[in-house]
Amino acid sequence: MTSPTRFSYGFLALLLVLVIWLHLAVPLLAVLFSLFVLNKLTFGKHKWLAVVLFILVIAGVSYGAVHFLRAAVVAFPKIAETSIPSVLAWAQSRNIELPFSDYSSLKDLAVDTVREQLHSVGTLARGATSHLVFLLIGAVVAISLFLNSQLDLDRHSHRVKNNLYSLCCEAIAERFFALYQSFSTVMGAQIVISLINTLLTTVFVFIVHLPYGLVVIGVTFLCGLLPVVGNLISNTIIVGVAFTISPRFAFIALIFLIVVHKLEYFLNSKIVGDRIRNPVWLTLLGLLIGEKLMGLPGMILAPVILNYIRVETSQIEVVTPPKE
C-alpha cells in the first residue's frame, strides 16, 4: 500500500470522526443523497440538464414535504384522541398495563420526553434552521462535485507530475467515491424496498378506506428508508390509525402487515441481501451506535459505513509471513 493510499484512509477516518464530533451527519447525508439523485437524473453527458432536473425535483419534494407536514400536524392529534380510548379499552379487557391512562397523560408523557431532548422552543427553531442551511449547503456541494470532482485543479500544470499532493488528492477522491458507492448500494436497495412497501400500503389504504391515507402513505415511505426499525415505526402508526375505526379493524390491519412482512423477507433477501453482505445483528448494532452518536441521521449512515468498511477492507491483501 502506497503512502498516498494510507493517507487517504486516515483522512476519511478523520473526516468521519469530525462528522460525529461536530454533528455534521445531516450535511454529509445531503451531499451523498444529492449526488445519488444527480447521477440517477444524468442522461448521457448533459450534466447541466441533470442539475436543472435536480433543482426541479428538490422544489417538488419540498412542496410535497410542506403539504405532508401540514396534514400530519393536523392528523396525529386526531388519531391519538380517537384511537387511545379504543387501545385503553382493549388493553384493560386483557389486563395489560400501559404507561398512560388517557390522551392527557399520553400528551404529558410525550411532552416530558421532548423536554428531555430540548431545553426550549428557541433551541428547536435554531436546530431546524441550521438543518435547513446544512441541507442547502450539502446540495450545493453535491452539485459542485457532480460538475467537477477533481480536488487538485492544477493537476496537469505541476512541474512534478507524480507529486505527493496530487497523488493524495487522487487517493482521497477514490475513498470518497467508494463511500458514495456504498451509500448508493444501501440507499438504492432501501428505496426499492420502501417503494414496494408503500405501494402495497397504498392499495390497502384505498381498498379498506383507511382514514388519514395521505399521512399513512407518507409515513410508510419515509420510515421505509430506515432499515429494520423503520417498518416497526410505520406499522405502529398504521395499527393506531386502524384503532380509530375499531379493534377488529386494527387486527385486520395487523394481519395485512404480517403478510406484507413475509413478502418483504423474500424481497430483502433478493434486493438487499444480494447487495449488502452484512449479518442482521451487525446492522442492528450499527443502528444502535449510529443513533446514539448522531441520532436519526446516524441510523441512516450506519449501514452505509458498515458496507463501506467491508468493501474497502476486502480489497486490501494481507501478506502473512511464511511459517518457519
TrEMBL record:
Where does this one sit in the cell? Membrane
Q: Which UniProt keywords apply?
A: Membrane, Transmembrane, Transmembrane helix
Q: How does it sit in the membrane?
A: Multi-pass membrane protein
Q: Which residues cross the membrane?
A: 12-36, 48-69, 128-147, 185-206, 212-230, 237-260, 280-306
What InterPro entries has UniProt attached to this entry?
A: AI-2E-like
Write down a Pfam family by its short name. AI-2E_transport
Example GO CC term: the record gives: membrane
Task: Please report which protein family the annotation says this sequence is part of.
Answer: Belongs to the autoinducer-2 exporter (AI-2E) (TC 2.A.86) family.
Spell out the protein name for this chain.
Permease
